[in-house]
Amino acid sequence: IMERTFSIIKPDGVKRNLIGKILSKMESADLKIVSTKMIHMSRREAEQFYSVHSARPFFGELCDYMTSGPVVVSVLEGKNAVVAYRELMGATDPAKAAKGTIRAEFGLSIGENTVHGSDSLENAAIEVAYFFSGTELVNAAK
Ligand code: CMP
């Protein structure tokens, strides 16, 4: 089934000039870039985006980090896109990520793990709608 998922290239990825390499890996994995843009999240935006983690001990650090510099948010479309992109990213901890995944190749630590991807189709829809308006989704497959 065709799905859409939501991706963030986190501040460590943008800072190290990895945007092109990461977008290229998405395209090579047959994920179509429906929309993409660079943003610098406000504190409020980060706190709301990560609100499911608000009770976790790393919540403050996570929001500090995600607002520390620009990020690239994207909408990806493809067959089973949610799972396909999670497989391409690899495990949250780069040290545990499978060889060839984005986090294995580029991730620095559990926090600075270079990319975010939606964990379910339901959250993907919420996350896409949080950062993109309908008219920004301009490269959908027909
Ligand atoms: P992400 O997929 O963006 O969603 C939540 C993030 O919390 C996760 O990636 C990690 O980068 C971040 N995080 C920071 N510290 C931890 C931790 N100790 N355990 C799990 N996730 C963490």
TrEMBL record:
<feature type="binding site">
    <location>
        <position position="113"/>
    </location>
    <ligand>
        <name>ATP</name>
    </ligand>
</feature>
<keyword id="KW-0963">Cytoplasm</keyword>
<comment type="subunit">
    <text>Homotetramer.</text>
</comment>
<comment type="function">
    <text>Major role in the synthesis of nucleoside triphosphates other than ATP. The ATP gamma phosphate is transferred to the NDP beta phosphate via a ping-pong mechanism, using a phosphorylated active-site intermediate.</text>
</comment>
<keyword id="KW-0479">Metal-binding</keyword>
<feature type="domain" description="Nucleoside diphosphate kinase-like">
    <location>
        <begin position="2"/>
        <end position="139"/>
    </location>
</feature>
<comment type="similarity">
    <text>Belongs to the NDK family.</text>
</comment>
<protein>
    <recommendedName>
        <fullName>Nucleoside diphosphate kinase</fullName>
        <ecNumber>2.7.4.6</ecNumber>
    </recommendedName>
</protein>
<dbReference type="InterPro" id="IPR023005">
    <property type="entry name" value="Nucleoside_diP_kinase_AS"/>
</dbReference>
<keyword id="KW-0067">ATP-binding</keyword>
<feature type="binding site">
    <location>
        <position position="92"/>
    </location>
    <ligand>
        <name>ATP</name>
    </ligand>
</feature>
<dbReference type="GO" id="GO:0004550">
    <property type="term" value="F:nucleoside diphosphate kinase activity"/>
</dbReference>
<dbReference type="GO" id="GO:0006241">
    <property type="term" value="P:CTP biosynthetic process"/>
</dbReference>
<feature type="active site" description="Pros-phosphohistidine intermediate">
    <location>
        <position position="116"/>
    </location>
</feature>
<dbReference type="GO" id="GO:0005524">
    <property type="term" value="F:ATP binding"/>
</dbReference>
<keyword id="KW-0418">Kinase</keyword>
<keyword id="KW-0547">Nucleotide-binding</keyword>
<keyword id="KW-0808">Transferase</keyword>
<feature type="binding site">
    <location>
        <position position="86"/>
    </location>
    <ligand>
        <name>ATP</name>
    </ligand>
</feature>
<keyword id="KW-0546">Nucleotide metabolism</keyword>
<keyword id="KW-0597">Phosphoprotein</keyword>
<dbReference type="Pfam" id="PF00334">
    <property type="entry name" value="NDK"/>
</dbReference>
<dbReference type="InterPro" id="IPR001564">
    <property type="entry name" value="Nucleoside_diP_kinase"/>
</dbReference>
<dbReference type="InterPro" id="IPR036850">
    <property type="entry name" value="NDK-like_dom_sf"/>
</dbReference>
<dbReference type="InterPro" id="IPR034907">
    <property type="entry name" value="NDK-like_dom"/>
</dbReference>
<dbReference type="GO" id="GO:0005737">
    <property type="term" value="C:cytoplasm"/>
</dbReference>
<dbReference type="GO" id="GO:0046872">
    <property type="term" value="F:metal ion binding"/>
</dbReference>
<feature type="binding site">
    <location>
        <position position="10"/>
    </location>
    <ligand>
        <name>ATP</name>
    </ligand>
</feature>
<feature type="binding site">
    <location>
        <position position="103"/>
    </location>
    <ligand>
        <name>ATP</name>
    </ligand>
</feature>
<dbReference type="GO" id="GO:0006183">
    <property type="term" value="P:GTP biosynthetic process"/>
</dbReference>
<feature type="binding site">
    <location>
        <position position="58"/>
    </location>
    <ligand>
        <name>ATP</name>
    </ligand>
</feature>
<keyword id="KW-0460">Magnesium</keyword>
<dbReference type="GO" id="GO:0006228">
    <property type="term" value="P:UTP biosynthetic process"/>
</dbReference>
